[in-house]
Amino acid sequence: MEDAYRQTANAATTSLDWEAKERIVGMGVETLDKIDETRKQYRALQEENAMLRKYCENLNATANRKDDAQG
What we know:
The chain has one helix at 2-70. By secondary structure, the protein is mainly α. The N and C termini lie far apart (103 Å). The mean pLDDT is 89. Keywords: Coiled coil.
């Protein structure tokens, strides 16, 4: 009887350990997915920032030309 109990306990523990491992791996995958998404958003924001800087440079250049023409 003790041997049967031990086998059942071992099987239950192994199952729980496996489920815990699966949850940990799942959480790791979710974290990596979030990191990848954050990197993509960061790159998109960098590109948007570069376009806005160029737009500001163009506005400043246009304003300076108008000032030079009037001055």
